[in-house]
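Kindly draft a polypeptide, keeping tokens residue-aligned:

***
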Amino acid sequence: LEKSLIYRHPRSLGHAAVGLVRTGDFNMAKEVLTILEKQVKEPQARAMGLYAHALVDDQLDPTVAIEGRLHSIRQDYPDTEAADRAWLVLLDRQVLASEGQESAGALVEYSTIARRSLVREVRQEAGFKHALLLYLNGRLSESIDALSTFRRGNFRSSLRAEATALLAEALPAQIKQLIDEGKDMEALVLVERHRSLLLQKGLDTFFLYDLALSMNRLGLWERAVRVYLYLLEGADQRPDIANQLYLPLIRLYFDNMEYGLAERYAKEYFERFSLGEDRFRIYEYWLKAVHAQKKTESLLFLLGRPDRPSDDELEALACELYWELGDYEMVQRLAIRIKRMDGDLAWRARYLQAESLYRLGRFRQAHSLYQDLEQQAFYLEPSLYRQARIQLEWNQRTRAATLLEQLLEDGKHEGWKALAQDLLNDLGKR
């Protein structure tokens, strides 16, 4: 290096030394620092040299304590880039020593450097670390504000990508926290403000469900729909994201009786994602939406499609719908499969099967099922009443009367008891 160059651009040597330290070229850094310390007297350059020398020593031997030297740089060379950088390193070490725990002092100092440093790169680094420390200590709202401000003011910063990634991590957690706290409007504002960023990160299904519920609670379902449609439009080239948006959108439409739109987007989902993870629940909404519109032919087509999704809940819904359509033979076929399940769906299937057999005049099969249904308190009264009716079909008037009297004694629902009493009265008149 020519001496004339050194004297003309002394500050460049300090920056060169720092750059060499960052790239791990410590030998070259030492050569530059030797020249700088012997021949350069300019305060800014000397301060950068001292700062770089401290970093080199720290890298070569981490047991060497450099904090005192960094404090000296701050004291001896105030209002220089090296002083601000030394301050940052000292703060970083303080935060690391506390394992990221909140330090009010560190937050204030990062913020001070971000506002006052004369060097843009230093201001940016301090601003990002201020936001990062807020995030690490669970102060999500403040962190999001700080990161948003950082991104708006630092389009060309080397740290903008890190700030964007951190903001994408913080947003879903903060939105969920607001929803859990009942602050639905604040959550919605965040979603609308950061739509593109949420899409870039990817969306968690449970997060979307919570968001839809939050918007519904606000009575802003139409606004909620707009948000989902915006998200869906933005995810046009991201099928992995779009796949997750249909179910909450369709549910919003269905819950607010926009059955035609629920049907439209359910159909669109199956055109795009016939094997998507949400296909079972979306097909369920599709069936319900078509049924609510009394579109019988469409309903029969959807129920009868050989490629329609099938799980316990869907088969149970199909059984209910065939029951309402009066197709008792289909109820029989479906109920036999559903009866193998456990829980309420199985008992409901038994009841619908018994009712279908009764309407088809297959009294012996129906009677056997009604006897099983007596085990469930919910079906006790209709089972006893139907058994009485079947006994009358078999001209067993005494047995029918006994069943009706049992219903009057054990029953809890006045409607069934009234029917039993009327039938008993008719028996007495015969």
